[in-house]
Amino acid sequence: MSNKIQAIRGMNDLLPEQSPVWQYFERQIQHLMQRYGYSEIRMPIIEQTALFKRSIGEVTDIVEKEMYTFEDRNGDSLTLRPEGTASCVRAALENGLLYNQTQRLWYQGPMFRHERPQKGRYRQFHQVGVEAYGMYGPDIDVEMILLSARLWEALGLMPHVQLELNSLGSNEARAAYRDALVAHFEAHSDVLDEDSRRRLSTNPLRILDSKNPDMASMLADAPRLMDHLDEESRVHFAELTAMLEAAGIDYVINPRLVRGLDYYSRTVFEWTTQALGSQGTVCAGGRYDGLVEQLGGKPTPGVGFAMGVERLILLLETLDLVPEAARPRTDVYLTAMGDAASREAMLLGERLRDTLPGMHLQLHCGGGSFKSQIKKADKSGARMALLLGEDELASGQVGIKFLREDRDQESVALDALAARLKTLLAEA
User: Fold this and answer.
1) DSSP characters for 69-82?
2) What pLDDT score was predicted for residue 420?
3) What predicted TM-score, i.e. pTM, was given to this entire model?
4) Which of 30, 83, 202, 205 can pair with 59 through a Cys bridge, CB separation 3.0 to 4.6 Å?
């Protein structure tokens, strides 16, 4: 026998018992976006490689080490999207969505990065992204944060997450800060690990993200980006924090928060949690006022964030915050003994679904003994089983067997069945 073909490492199946929790989360997202006036956009999962090199930055870890890139039959270099913002900007530009107008957009779907798989972080992972274009003020930054905070409230996560903020300033201010930071790191080059030495000449701000405990003291003494902000960025950040305080949103300023993508400017933020150990970031974003122009459009401000679905669902399950209503359920399992009863059961099931659209009814198919059908009814999780056989057909009755309650079996006339089921379901 040939070897079984298995899924690619880090790319996982979503099994039937898991999908209802995802659907619950997706319903929360869709409802929230509609309430805030954001419209859904869906982009392809494959883009030209140049899109990500120009937007994310050629010396970032994503572009250097993590992208799934290949040549197609025409010799074009294509990449499975590692994130959604660049694709969203490309789609908005290509389809004229940014011409003299503001836009509020959101999307969801798979992203791909070749990194070491671990719980909550996979090579194919799913993100929800939210983007807004054409608005310069800090009010849209605040709206993004308030929108995400409302999601945490809806999911019961607010007590378990913390908002961290920083400002990266303008490109010019960041360049001056970069020089000061490089000088600091060079003065302590003996402490830098190999990865940090590599980043020193390419992306020194990313060294601030290092989790190496041997560098912690040196990083704590590093120059603060906040001390190098231009005046306009300083005012922007002060207004943003004032609005958050007025809205009752707690935050901490994290001077080492820089984000891993080159296109960010001014506001950057993360929602973090202590409930998942080291994998603490559940939502992150910020402003990217230069990205649209960088990708060929007219200067257009932008701001957005993304959240990892796997990590958030892991957080919900870890904290036991998935409501019972989000779990899969079967109310009624319809059994049938004999060919005539099986034919009638098929039609009966359809009539009941028409009459009771809120009821979850599963029809037994494939025959089998009464005992085996009841066993499957019990395994389905149904509250009750409907019993239809030759005797029931002859008498125009249906048996109701209660699978989760200690009560006697009932016999109900076929024409009264829907009303009786409605009453029984209302009792649950």
Assistant:
1) EEE-TTS-EEEE-S
2) 94
3) 0.86
4) 202
